[in-house]
Amino acid sequence: MVNIRDVAARAAVAPMTVSRVLNNPDAVSVDTRKRVEEAIADLHYVPNMVGQGLRKRRTMVLGLVVSDITNPFAVQQIQGVTKAARAAGYTVIFAHTEHSADEELHQLRSLIERRVDGVLLSPVYNTPDSVEFVQRQRRPIAVLGYDMAGLDVDVVRCDTDAAARSLTEFLIDLGHRSIAMLSGSENIVTAVERARGYTRAMTEAGLGVRITYGRFTPESGYEMAMSALRAPERPTALVTASNFIALGAAEAASALGLRVPEDLSITTFDNARTDLVHDPFFTGIVQPVAEMASAGTDMVIERASGQVAGPGRDRIFPTTFEVHRSTAPPSREPASSRAPSSAATRRGHHNEVKGSQQ
Amino acid sequence: MVNIRDVAARAAVAPMTVSRVLNNPDAVSVDTRKRVEEAIADLHYVPNMVGQGLRKRRTMVLGLVVSDITNPFAVQQIQGVTKAARAAGYTVIFAHTEHSADEELHQLRSLIERRVDGVLLSPVYNTPDSVEFVQRQRRPIAVLGYDMAGLDVDVVRCDTDAAARSLTEFLIDLGHRSIAMLSGSENIVTAVERARGYTRAMTEAGLGVRITYGRFTPESGYEMAMSALRAPERPTALVTASNFIALGAAEAASALGLRVPEDLSITTFDNARTDLVHDPFFTGIVQPVAEMASAGTDMVIERASGQVAGPGRDRIFPTTFEVHRSTAPPSREPASSRAPSSAATRRGHHNEVKGSQQ
DNA sequence: CTGTTAGCGCATTCAT
DNA sequence: ATGAATGCGCTAACAG
């Protein structure tokens, strides 16, 4: 391919002058600049950033590692990262790990080999290995999603514990007393955190806790809901740890002849953004995923370009609690108590956005 | 960062020996190899592929450019490409263009600057500019999606024209006579091709053609369906050019009090794969998107590694026609004729897979 | 089996 | 305002 010397030769200047035209045009006289630009156009010259990267020790490439690309969540992360990266002139190498910690390390290594200027990681687990690997290679990294216990690293996340509590408390306020939690894999932090928030809210209200751990899929949601709803004292409401689980649970309810929300209320996390869905159904928590990913990308770029140094920052974004059509006070017969007064005020507030928290 | 000379010094060998340990271990004695490997581990050395890329003139990076990442389609493309790339040791730079031809060229240029070894393009339009730009830079490229009239380039696609015909003919066989087509933007080839297949089938059957061009979104589908269904002679069936349009059309039908399929049959393209959906609703065409993307990636890699040269290949994948619950013979009153015999055999064959074509 | 030389494309540094 | 020398990290080609 044509290189900077070819251009220089054609314009009858030194390669250095061509370089200046590209990187610092004002330092070149208008005359020679014009000549060089013509040569560039004539030869269809495209600068080689591999050479540049070697010399400048910057590749202008960022790495993004997500767990599961089939999750709409990941798509929003990709959008957020590429948007922020593009705005700063970076491109993005994309990798996904299919929930495997080994694959995560493998992909990160591959990114380091390519000498990306920084890494965005939506991690499988919150073990320190991945972050420490990248940091040992002196590349900035930001974690998307959750706290990395005790690590000195930039983090962008929501207060999931509080969000889970508010979902649960909302159901309790509606009058529900028998509320089950359907979560994801016990190995995944978000699954555990969300279950923990549920547990706290239930315990504080003096109610019994019922948690099932499965996977973040509709199938798993279906199965978990099936066994939960067939249990002796059938719950009148479910807290699910993801939209996929909620979908499966709704199917299960329908298969059992239960109407949502009349016979069963369902709440969920990771709701799709309202502006993407015509007629949202599930009451649940919405995270500003794309914005969070953009913010994380900015943090990484700040460090890569030397604008920021020092200790890791922990940026917590507000979640939104949206009330839609999947929740209602419990019906009379199976519930152990009536709907309390606080629920009455909310009854009928369909599609109301309760607002943000934290 | 630690480089190959640091490792060499620590192992008391020449840098070349370290290089050999990494690239051709058998050419090094067991003894020295062990020493070098220790040094690598001690120093946490990760080879610099930027330097390697400059020297070998191969980056082991591929570029993937898709139009719209919010389309589940794009996700399958990403999966297919990353899978094939990873299997061959390549990583993938990902870019999306939001349906802008300018942005497409811009992203391609950025990929060329990074000296990717090859490009996968799911193009906005089938104009030659993008392909020609990449080819002029002597990088292999494969086009995902549709034919590039007269260009000498690797293409991976389906026979969309035939697929559109078969959708339409299926409806005609069911007994429908008044069938409208809701398509995407007239600027986008797939939209036009799908409309063309519909037109041919209708014309051959001696039926009138009604085509609306809009966008590939639920909102647009809703609007197009609304005006189509309010027209004087209301159609008894719709052919939609994408799943998004079909969703909007179904909403519109529901808003007008029409039942699907009793009062209105709907068929679609770009159906999600059956194994991803619990209880598929739409009768329509399914493309093996991920497999196509993988195949395109293999084609690019074959050229990048010199295994293949010569003229562009046109690889056409079979589509699958899945009959689900959104289609039925027309009801008696508004239709001009009864359901013919051929439709009777299909009536009730819900969730049947009709098989593949071409 | 191991080492030396040289250069991939570019930009920093210094000189003019 | 422009150019020459040098080296970023690595490996092909050759030498021993």
Unreliable residue runs of chain A: 334-358
Estimate the global geometry of chain A from the Cα principal axes: elongated
Number of DSSP strands of chain A? 13
Task: Classify the beta-strand content of chain A into a percent band.
Answer: 15-25%
Number of helices of chain A: 13
CATH superfamily of the largest domain in chain A: Response regulator
The CATH architecture name of the largest domain in chain A reads 3-Layer(aba) Sandwich
The whole-number mean of residue pLDDT values of chain A reads 89
CATH topology of the largest domain in chain A: Rossmann fold
Q: Report the C-alpha radius of gyration of chain A, rounded.
A: 26 Å
Spatial order of the strands in the main sheet of chain A? 7-6-8-9-10-12-13
Approximate helicity band of chain A? 40-55%
Structure description:
2 copies of one chain form a homodimer. With 358 residues, the first copy, chain A, is an alpha/beta fold. Chain A folds into 3 domains: 4-47, lambda repressor-like DNA-binding domains (434 Repressor (Amino-terminal Domain), Orthogonal Bundle), CATH 1.10.260; 58-158 and 288-316, Rossmann fold (3-Layer(aba) Sandwich); 160-287 and 321-352, Rossmann fold (3-Layer(aba) Sandwich), CATH 3.40.50.2300. Chain A is 43% helix and 17% strand. The first copy, chain A, is built from 13 helices and 13 strands. In chain A, the strands form 2 sheets. In chain A, strands 7-6-8-9-10-12-13 form a 7-stranded mixed sheet, with helices on both faces. Chain A has a 6-stranded parallel sheet with strand order 2-1-3-4-5-11, sandwiched between helices. In chain A, strand 3, helix 7 (129-136) and strand 4 (141-145) form a beta-alpha-beta unit. Chain A is elongated, with a radius of gyration of 26 Å. Chain A binds chain B through residues 1, 44, 46-51, 53-54, 59, 61, 69-70, 75, 78-79, 82, 91-96, 109-115, 136-138, 218-219, 222, 247-248, 251, 276, 278-279, and chain B through 1, 44, 46-51, 53-54, 59, 61, 69-70, 75, 78-79, 82, 91-96, 109-115, 136-138, 218-219, 222, 247-248, 251, 276, 278-279. Strand 2 of chain A pairs antiparallel with strand 2 (91-96) of chain B, so a sheet runs across the interface. The first copy, chain A, binds a DNA duplex (16 and 16 nucleotides) through helix 2 and helix 4.
